[in-house]
Amino acid sequence: MVSLSGNLLFIAFLLYLIGTVFFAGSIKDKRGREKEHGPNKWAKIGVGITIAGFLSQVSYFITRWIAAGHAPVSNLFEFTTFFGMCLVGAFIVIYFIYKLAALGLFTLPVAMLLIAYAAMFPRDISPLVPSLQSNWLHIHVTTAALGQAILAISFIAGLIYLIKAVDHSKKNKEAFWLEAVLFGLVCTLGFVVISTVFSAAGYKSDFNWIDNNNVESVQEFHLPALVGPHEGEHLTPDKFSPLVETPAIIDAKKLNTVIWSLITGTVLYLLFRLLFRKRIAESLQSLTKRVNLDLVDEIGYRSVLIGFPIFTLGALIFAMIWAQIAWSRFWGWDPKEVWALITWLFYAAYLHLRLSKGWHGNKSAWLGVIGFIIIMFNLIVVNLVIAGLHSYAGS
Amino acid sequence: MKQVKCECGHVNPHGTVLCESCGRVLVEEEKSKKVVDMRYEGSARRSQTYNKTIIDKIWNFFSSVKVGVTLIIITLAASAIGTIFPQEMYIPTTEPASIYYESQYGFLGKLYYVLGLHNLYSSWWYLVLIASIGISLVICSLDRVIPLYRALKNQKVSRHEGFLKRQRLFGISKVDELDHSYELVKEKLESKRYKIREENGDILAEKGRFSRWGPYINHIGLIIFLIGGMMRFVPGMYVDELLWVREGETAVIPETNGEYYLENHKFVLEVYDKDSDNEAFANAIENNGMVAKNFQTDTTLYKKSAETVAGEEPILDKVEDYELRVNEPLKFEQFALYQQSYKLDELNQMHFALTNKETNEALGDLTIDLYNPQDEYDLGEGYKVEVLSYFPDFEFDENSEPVTKSRIPNNPAFVFKMFTPEKPDGEVSFVAIKQTIEPFGDNDFKMTFKGVETKNVSAITVRKDLTLGILAVGGFIFMIGVIQGAYWNHRRIWLRRVDGEVWVAGHTNKNWHGLKREITGILQGTGIEEPKDQLDEKEK
Ligand code: HEM
To answer: Where in the cell is it found (chain A) (predicted)?
Structure first.
């Protein structure tokens, strides 16, 4: 069951990849360009494949649920793949409202990146600690992730909007920051690439070190240690030795991973620039040529409108109900809770700025992008760096 | 108060920009605008009308969305700062906060502590921020909802030309067979679920007006929620106590006026087992080590019997047996008990034997209850041990005097006086774990340590929270309001005959693109031209 489940996830990933190709084809297809109405054949196949991929991933989810005896949303790998699945699901729904192929072209790669990212973390089916043994785990986590995924569509829409609307020919702030966001995505890809390479090679080096609380422990690095732990003793001297030591309050292993991701991301980015001789945003612009800006602007807003109530319900209300049952208090200012509140406040601000201050177009698109950054921050940084009650085991 | 009478005869409140009934522009400056501001139907909002007294100024400040959003953003940023380092409630209790932050996080940690950010969410300024958002919610809603309600209720079907012309979506077309087109349009409007009103051959098609109340309803929900949050500080509404009960012990439950008691029969800690639990977990258990499966206290809840005589031991009536687990609180009356924490193997009893040092002969055993030691233990035949002093959690203070850190027997130590027929005046001995001191020289007898008994202790949270009902109501109303405002929107389409032409105008509070697409569908094939977006034209 477990291996079947893993295969289904892999198939879903491949189908998303193929789906992306078809969506790209639908945009490049010259036929049907005059007829404004209706998606062309490529787009129809693309969405069909996407749905197949989605179903495959749903099957992964169900089989894993059966194998584990609980919904697979209990560690970073499971939650992040689930989030990717919700993102695809949200896209499918929005696609049938607006029939915009470009949305698929941008959503699927982001979903694949999320899944690939998730796969870099321990994939074991983990048993549930007592506080997680509740049906509220399923109810709360799934609704919260669904809400976030729908909100994330406004990021995709914002990205498309900006790629099309920003003037890339001149140097300007908007173009710079847009490129920075895309660079961030490339670095995530960099993380996936470099982790895969060294894990395939079975690279491992160990350090003995004494942490901030004077506890001696061994840290196992899976990437060559460019930076090493504070006063660490290298136990595998045949492997690469650190160039610098981190101060005691910084986790050397995590910092090392970040550095490697940045390096690999930069290399990938430079390769891209060499190949296309253009910024990424500028190269993508041709894919957005036929996109109606008002339409993407509205998709961004609609997805926030649809996602906001679901997010409120899942990430705040259900969360509070469960916290009251499990921890005896509905709210405890745990970092994860606080970041859910921050996300919620942010999208509330978005809605007010849009409705009452008339923030449309570029401004609204940027807010969509920033909102997604906050969601990702809550998913990644809060889980891995700011430890709290919610933090997932894993590294 | 000065009121404004429109030419159409409708009397509007002072400050109205567009007549509530016919929409005629009542304010000179507005007439020069190509598109009127329709956000609140040009109604008379207090904040837009008065700005003289202090109260006006405060009202206007809090009713501004700019201020509201600024407050939200500041709160958001402040909340984020509170997550940089753990809040005080989450740091280990082994070190005081004044030392912990600096020792863990260096200079920044110290700064965090000095600025009070380690208790950010209960700081006065954070509460002021939340309160300001609350005030802003009340004022901004009151400022808008009544005028908006009046304007939408009083609106007439036939709108003034000046009103239609200044709508964002507006168009004029000449149609030959107008009556026929009208029938078609009406049919299509109906199929799109518009409510249609007709007067003098003019049409007002409207749908989703109720969604306009969504924001106000959700704001009311939020206010109720915030009020619920404040109620916690009202005495009697909220109880948060931690109760430690040892196995075998019955403890009175705090805050119940001595009415309820809880007995801890046994604390159970289970961990997942590679072999007997789901085999899918095997890898995870191997990689992560032990994973807890269950924390449970087997308890009995008692209520003090009415027959209890004051001043005597209470008589307890059993209420129920309950296996108290995480996620399964025990509820009674307004209280709930939660399995919160535990301590395994706390020292409970110590066994000693009085021994002759030379012959190693044991002259009698004694067992000391570490929570309730007796003053003396008579071993018979002239053998007796007195407990002169007891230090449950012993250490030497700076003057090298023995003291106790707490009443928990983490490190018990005793001063014994041993009486024997050979030494009827007694010998004094100081006994701690792995340590014996004989302050008055060599003794003939000693207390030989024989062993200990330990018990598990459960920490149980005692909670009463009467604010939960209010919070639930607030949250529920909030959800109704957001859904109402988010999943529907308010759309209106006007058609008016003017000198053989048809004037078409459209308005929505959001999703203009959607409205345009809908109008395109409605007017298709009716001979009436689509209205243009006048904002687009302005940009071009
Ligand atoms: C965290 C707090 C708040 C939340 C969650 C919230 C939520 C909302 C939502 C969901 C909407 C509907 C937006 C839309 O449909 O696009 C809305 C509208 C609105 N909110 Fe808030 N709000 C909050 C605080 C405030 C504050 C402090 C103000 C004060 C200025 C305010 C003023 C308004 C106004 C004026 C509207 C528009 C009403 C209309 O046009 O009919 N809100 N709010």
So the answer is: Membrane
pLDDT band at A31 (very low <50, low <70, confident <90, very high): low
What are the CB-based long-range contacts (under 8 Å, 24+) for B191-196?
B192/B518, B192/B521, B192/B522, B194/B491, B194/B493
Does the structural domain B168-208+489-539 have CATH classification 3.30.310.80?
yes
Count of residues in chain A: 395
Q: Would the CB atoms of A349 and B478 count as touching at under 8 Å?
A: no
Contacts of B212 (CB under 8 A, 6+ apart): B148, B152, B485, B490, B509
Distance from the Cα of A278 to chain B's closest Cα (Å) equals 30
Determine the distance in angstroms separating the CA of B16 from the nearest CA of chain A, rounded to an integer. Answer: 19
Name the 3-class secondary structure at A291.
Answer: coil
Q: What is the Cα gyration radius of chain B?
A: 39
**Model confidence pLDDT, tens digit, residues B209-240:** 999 999 999 999 999 999 999 999 899 899 99
Q: Is the CB of B136 under 6 A from ligand 1?
A: yes
Ligand 1: which atom is nearest the Cα of residue A355?
16
Find out whether B317 and B302 touch, Cβ atoms under 8 Å: yes
The model carries a pTM of 0.91
Domain ranges for chain B, please list them.
45-152, 168-208+489-539, 238-344+459-473, 347-454
Q: Is B242 on the interface with A (CB under 8 A)?
A: no
Task: Tell me which of B66, B140, B144, B225 to substitute to probe ligand 1's pocket, judged by most ligand atoms within 8 Å of the beta carbon.
Answer: B140
Asked if residues B260 and B302 have their Cβ atoms less than 8 Å apart, the reply is yes
Residue closest via CA to ligand 1's atom 42 equals B137
Q: Is the pLDDT of residue A395 over 50?
A: no
Q: Would you call A65 an interface residue with chain B, using a CB distance cutoff of 8 Å?
A: no
**Which chain A residue shows the shortest CA-CA distance from B476?**
A317
Instruction: Give me the pLDDT at residue A237, please.
Output: 78
Both tokens assigned to A196:
């895969």
Terminal CA-CA length for chain B:
44
Residue B25 one-letter amino acid: V
Going from the C-alpha of B265 to that of each of A259, B249, B253, B317, the distances in angstroms are 54, 7, 16, 16
| Contact criterion met (CB below 8 Å) for A311 and A90 | no
ipTM above 0.90, yes or no: yes
| Residue of minimum CA distance from atom 4 in ligand 1 | A348
User: Inter-chain contact A352–B340, Cβ cutoff 8 Å?
Assistant: no
Q: How far is CA A75 from CA A80, B143, B374, in A?
A: 8, 47, 53
pLDDT, one tens digit per residue, over B94-113 is 788 888 898 888 899 999 99
Mean pLDDT of A75-83: 94
Looking at beta carbons, which pairs linking A361-366 to residues 24 or more positions away fall under 8 Å?
A: A361/A161, A361/A165, A361/A293, A361/A297, A362/A161, A362/A162, A362/A165, A362/A166, A362/A174, A364/A158, A364/A297, A364/A300, A364/A301, A365/A157, A365/A158, A365/A159, A365/A161, A365/A162, A365/A165, A365/A296, A365/A297, A365/A300, A366/A158, A366/A162
Beta strands in B305-334 (DSSP E): 316-325, 330-332
Question: Would you list the DSSP string of B93-154?
Answer: TTS-HHHHHHHHHHHHHHHHHHTTGGGGGGSHHHHHHHHHHHHHHHHHHHHHHHHHHHHHHH
Residue pointed to by tokens 């009452």: A356
| CA A95/CA A48 separation, integer angstroms | 11
Give the C-alpha separation, B252 to B262, whole Å. Answer: 6
Q: Do A68 and B471 touch (CB under 8 A)?
A: no
Max CA distance (Å), chain A? 71
3-state secondary structure at position A262: helix
Residues of B in contact with A309 (CB under 8 A): 479, 482-483, 486-487
- Residue B235: burial class (beta carbons within 10 Å; 0-12, 13-18, 19+): exposed
Kindly report the number of other CB atoms within 10 A of residue A188's CB atom.
19
Residue A267 vs residue B525, higher pLDDT: A267
Contact criterion met (CB < 8 Å) for B72 and A393: no
